[in-house]
Amino acid sequence: MLKTSLLSSAALVAFGTTMAVAQETFELDEIIVSGGLSPIAAQEYGRSVSVVTAQEIQDRGISSVVDALRALPGVSVSSAGSGFVQVRMRGGEARHTLVLLDGVQLAGGEGEYTFSGLQTTNIERIEVLRGPQSVAYGSNATTGVINIITRKGQVGKTYDGTFEVGGATAGSVFLSRRNERGGISLSMSRRSDPSYDQSGDGGERDKLDRLTAVLSGDYLVTDAVKLGFVLRRSKEYFDFDATNFGATDADSYIVDDATLMGHSKEVIGTVFAEYTMLEGRLVHRLALERTENKARRDGAPQTQTDANAVKYRLSYGLDGNTVAQADHLLNLLLESHSDSSPMTPLYERSSKSVAIEYRARLASGLDFQAGVRHDNNDQFEDATTWNVAMSYMVPNTEIRLHSSMGTGVLNPSYFSLYANAFGYTGNPDLNPEHNKSFDIGAEFPVLGGRGTVDVTYFDETLTDEISPVSLGGGAFTYGNQTGDSTRKGVEIAGNLQATDAVALRMSYTYLDAKNPDGSVEIRRPRHELSLGATVKTFGGRGQVAVDLRHVSGNYDTQFFGSYSTVELPAYTTVDVAAEYEVNDRYTVTARVTNLFKVDAVDVWGYGSPGRAAYVGFRANF
Question: Quick check: pTM over 0.90?
């Protein structure tokens, strides 16, 4: 622990004297699409947010959404094999984070979305909102929201594609046609990854194969009416290894098995209409959304969950200005939501919700947002959540202060209520989980404005946390813990344009997450540090990116032997990516992940990917 603290402190001190802010650097015209009931300018937004853009994904050679999230402050990723990857925010469980694609939930009914092979291909940006977001998004947005926004294309015709071989084979195409009133786009991607042996026994590699297609369009039918849609389909096949519940150590817990495989299918769709009145001062938006998930693993029954939502939003400029320019804005949301499963009648529930949000932009440099939501649930007690946030530009400086507080709620998942598989028996008497949170931070320039640094302190309290309860003999159920689960920590993010050719970036998270009895929460590292640099080369026609990630203070329960919770070994990985622009149409790419073949283990008993090299190209026409 001392060595880890010294490493983290030294890195932060060095960074503070030579560089500054990364993911949290905001441009004046940047808009946070997911920031509330309607989009909001980043400089006015009081909550903690990170944005990963398509350009950053390209520059760093990031191939998966999980890898894009790993370097963000407040985000923890754990992998129990390539087919089961969890993302946690600010010490919450994976189910406490709501994952969206173009604003539509990716998990149909269950609280948790398993990322596995989700690719970055044809993604425009990834917005990560930390802290409770239940006012805008309801249940599941208890500790944060991840909204993956897909590419739509520019005015004109766009045709481009990518291809990569090496550690995996991947390819994608993107087609779009747009004019000033709207357009249509189609993206398709395929990745076949031989992956690695999850058991760590030196057996067969547990491969993963994913195919995804996204079709979207929008059009301004009249100057007042806009229509649009998004349709996404994804299929994934993956291998996994057997579990030995009689094991006495980590080496014998996961056993190589070449016969086991699983598959999943995801379908999401939305259609929407927007109607503008009163010369832009009043905007109506109506959206219909549907999510379908099917999954199956050998040795377990197939699961299927569906979700449907109808959302109506009214936005009104209270000061007589248009919605886009209003200094005082009122948003109203009416929502009807239901989820179910054709597999069993127990998997069915619905809710009716109303939410109100007020935003104020004041001449003093203070921006204020406040909202409240009430959910009328048919299966659980009704819930009321709220939040407030402030952003303040200190006069005569470029320092921005920001703070937020609020509450979130999470209804129990189907599995925790009705499980009858993997040794688990559900508990239909579970209560929803509730989260209370506040954070406060400051974003300030360094080195004459060449960089920015953002430091945020957060404090969250989870009540009625749902956790597994041992019934003995390897059998489990679920129960609400008595007392509060606490999560406190510090998030630091920064970047610096050190020279015209060299850009530096960093993020660091310190997290203290504990159960009501004082024991440590598992799979939530105490220290996570990311350092990176991008250097332009070859006379500006190419560049090289290097990213280092250090993880320590991570605990996990050993589901074997005496079932002890033990600290995992710390690790530091390095990834390298490069590209060279051959001409205006073709770019050659290369990258190496886990350059030094480090054992980066997040879960006891599972192996981790070794070093992998890739070469590829991008083409646009």
Answer: yes
